[in-house]
């Protein structure tokens, strides 16, 4: 196959590209320039699309022996990922930019442009598996390394792109194995730190990034009785379940910590309360992306609501573009805007964006 290998400049994508070549594919490497700041520098494990990352990707391609190109997708990234991130926070929701990036950039802009250029598939360093199923479309499964598994952020890619994707690292037992392989292959990125947090917030200060882009919008922090107990600079900087950095001026009568329970962007208020009030028993999702046409999701399934969250037993009902989920055990800190991914065993059945949740009775 003619394969387009996405080279981020990290160890995972470099080893994935090398494995694709070793498998006999005709591979071309491409680095996606997503940042508007070409002078941006990496700070340890933070940041992406830096000068260092582009240089590391180029060196990896040269060492592997494949052609290398840089595609400027910064306009797409700004319009489809960063703008969505800002809009969701302004609406009081909690987005996952990695999900949007996989949906709009890595498996839309990259894969679709690659297909237009005659490439059969895109290879990435994601930790997930594509396994044969009962239909012509492969099944998306968790990676063998459950700790590094990234199937949660890939669930939004859609059935069509499953047939045009390769995940060469899905069968590795651990990240240490990937680093050891990179070292054996002579790839200089073998010891490069993993990136984490939000890639376009290089310093890790999400609140500061939002404040810079959106501006200060002071408002009241309320308790569950509606009493004002503090002030905020912008409700957008808070998320459901948040405990730290609330800026409260009046302590709780029982001395216990308080958590964000509700964000009302219309009134520009943030309501806080006890941890127990965060517990939910049901979730409603919208914008369903269903990967398993041969499995309706009936019977026992599990769901995951965070990138590295645990499996929660659940039953679900699909009605058009609405997914209603009844939880087998309570969850806390569920925020609108998060991705909800449905699994049967290790297989990804589908994904939806959380719209609302039903809290447990006190």
From TrEMBL:
Its main location: cytoplasm. Keywords: ATP-binding, Cytoplasm, Disulfide bond, Nucleotide-binding, RNA-binding, Transferase, tRNA processing, tRNA-binding. Its EC number is 2.8.1.13. Transmembrane segments: none annotated. It catalyses: S-sulfanyl-L-cysteinyl-[protein] + uridine(34) in tRNA + AH2 + ATP = 2-thiouridine(34) in tRNA + L-cysteinyl-[protein] + A + AMP + diphosphate + H(+). It is an enzyme of class 2 (transferase). One of its GO terms (molecular function) is ATP binding. Residues 281-354 form the tRNA-specific 2-thiouridylase MnmA-like C-terminal domain. The record marks 126, 338 as: Interaction with tRNA. Residues 148-150 are annotated as: Interaction with tRNA. One of its GO terms (cellular component) is cytoplasm. InterPro entries: MnmA-like (IPR004506), MnmA-like_C (IPR046885), MnmA-like_central (IPR046884), MnmA-like_central_sf (IPR023382), Rossmann-like_a/b/a_fold (IPR014729). GO terms for biological process: tRNA wobble position uridine thiolation. Residues 208-273 form the tRNA-specific 2-thiouridylase MnmA-like central domain. ATP binds at residues 6-13, 32, 125. The active site is at 101 (nucleophile), 199 (cysteine persulfide intermediate). It is found in: Cytoplasm. NCBIfam families: PRK00143.1, trmU. Catalyzes the 2-thiolation of uridine at the wobble position (U34) of tRNA, leading to the formation of s(2)U34. Belongs to the MnmA/TRMU family. This is tRNA-specific 2-thiouridylase MnmA. It comes from Bowdeniella nasicola. The lineage of its organism: Bacteria, Bacillati, Actinomycetota, Actinomycetes, Actinomycetales.
């Amino acid at each position: 196959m003619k394969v387009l290998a996405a080279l981020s400049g990290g160890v995972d994508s470099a080893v994935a590209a090398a494995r694709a070549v070793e498998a006999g594919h005709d591979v071309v490497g491409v680095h996606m320039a997503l940042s508007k700041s070409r002078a941006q520098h990496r700070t340890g494990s933070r940041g992406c699309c830096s000068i260092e990352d582009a240089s590391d990707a180029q060196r990896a391609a040269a060492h592997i022996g494949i052609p290398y190109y840089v595609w400027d997708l910064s306009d797409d990234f700004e319009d489809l990922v960063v703008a969505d991130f800002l809009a969701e926070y302004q609406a009081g929701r909690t987005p996952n930019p990695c999900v949007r990036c996989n949906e709009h950039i890595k498996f839309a802009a990259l894969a679709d442009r690659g297909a237009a250029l005659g490439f059969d598939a895109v290879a990435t360093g994601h930790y997930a598996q594509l396994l044969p199923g009962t239909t012509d479309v492969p099944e998306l499964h968790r990676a063998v390394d459950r700790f590094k598994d990234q199937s949660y952020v890939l669930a939004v890619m859609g059935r069509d792109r499953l047939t045009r994707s390769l995940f060469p690292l899905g069968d590795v037992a651990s990240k240490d194995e990937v680093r050891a392989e990179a070292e054996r292959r002579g790839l200089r990125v073998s010891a490069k730190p993993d990136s984490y947090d939000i890639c376009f917030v290089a310093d890790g200060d999400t609140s500061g990034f939002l404040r810079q882009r959106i501006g200060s919008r002071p408002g009241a922090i309320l308790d569950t009785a509606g009493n004002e107990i503090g002030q905020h600079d912008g409700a957008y900087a808070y998320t459901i379940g948040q405990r730290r950095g609330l800026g409260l001026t009046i302590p709780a009568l029982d001395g216990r910590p308080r958590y964000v329970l509700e964000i009302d962007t219309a009134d520009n208020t943030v309501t806080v309360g006890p941890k127990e009030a965060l517990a939910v028993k049901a979730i409603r999702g919208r914008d369903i992306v269903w990967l398993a046409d041969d499995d309706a999701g009936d019977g026992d399934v599990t769901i995951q609501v965070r990138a590295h969250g645990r499996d929660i037993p659940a039953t679900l009902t699909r009605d058009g573009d609405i997914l209603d989920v009844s939880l087998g055990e309570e969850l806390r800190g569920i925020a609108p805007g998060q991705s909800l991914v449905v699994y049967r065993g290790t297989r990804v059945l589908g994904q939806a964006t959380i719209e609302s949740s039903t809290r447990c009775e006190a």
